[in-house]
Amino acid sequence: MREPPGPLPPPPDDFTSRTLPLVEAKGPLFRLHARRRDALHFGRTASWRFDDPERRYGVCYTATDVHGAFAETFTKALRAGLIAEAELRSRGLARISCRRPLALVDLAASGGLAKIRADARLFAGDHEVARRWSAAFHAHPAKPDGILCPARHDPARTVCAVFERAKRALRAEELGSLLDVALLPTLKDLLDTYGLGFVPRRS
Predict the structure, then answer these.
(1) Which residues neighbour 88 within 8 Å (Cβ) at sequence distance 6 or greater?
(2) Of 189, 56, 72, which is closest to residue 123 (Cα–Cα)?
(3) What b-and-e string marks burial along 114-144, b requiring 16 or more CB atoms within 10 Å of the CB?
(4) How confident is the model at residue 2, as a pLDDT?
(5) What is the per-residue pLDDT across 141-184, written as a single tens digit (0 to 9) for each?
(6) Domains of the chain, start order
(7) Which is nearest to 98 in space by CA: 147, 198, 30?
(8) For a Cys-Cys bond, which of 7, 47, 97, 104 suits 148, CB 3.0-4.6 Å?
(9) Do 69 and 93 meet the contact criterion of CB atoms below 8 Å apart?
(10) Smallest Cα–Cα separation from 73: which of 91, 86, 51, 59?
(11) What is the spatial distance between Cα 160 and Cα 107, in angstroms, rounded to a whole number?
(12) Are strands 146-151 and 102-106 parallel, antiparallel or unpaired?
């Protein structure tokens, strides 16, 4: 029986001389953010997948569509098959426009991972290793604005980890809660897509 692959190795020694697989993202991007924070929050906690391990720059996690943002935000609900009204009310949906195209390291492109000597463990494996790769991307001479990769919980969607260096290129428009009347059709589509039950708040 084949042994599990283990963690992804760190970036190769010649990483800075390699050509990064870059793609231009013109937006819009989408984000389901904690309502106590600004929609364009660039975290420096060194706890999420592509955070800077040294906390020198922040990272804002977004998606190229609402489904991707939902799948990456409500991961526990996807595993349980249920989502509570309180969870939905705690998050605001934002549409993020780009004042200029963002240059993103494309981990979803055919051949992109192979060119940098990585594989899918980069976006679906150990977080500590992924953070080392994030720091290597950020320090690369190409100076990318972030990382584009398949969503771990819905690989048909793509998500973006945007580096803080691109903050001035972004503008957020608040769309409200998924429970707002205007967004109820979107919520129904999301619940149907992911086979989720809805748990209303107790009166």
Answers:
(1) 177, 178, 179, 187
(2) 72
(3) eebebeebbbbbebebbbbbbbbbbebeeeb
(4) 62
(5) 999 999 999 999 999 999 999 999 999 999 999 999 999 999 99
(6) 19-195 (3.90.175)
(7) 30
(8) 104
(9) yes
(10) 91
(11) 10
(12) parallel
Would you state the pLDDT for residue 4?
Answer: 66
pTM, 2 dp: 0.94
151 class by beta-carbon count within 10 Å (0-12 exposed, 13-18 middle, 19+ buried):
buried
pLDDT digits (tens, 9 = 90+) for 99-143: 999 999 999 999 999 999 999 999 999 999 999 999 999 999 999
| Rounded Cα gap, residues 18 and 99, in angstroms | 28
For 100, the token pair is 């200029």
198: buried, middle or exposed (CB in 10 Å: 19+, 13-18, 0-12)? middle
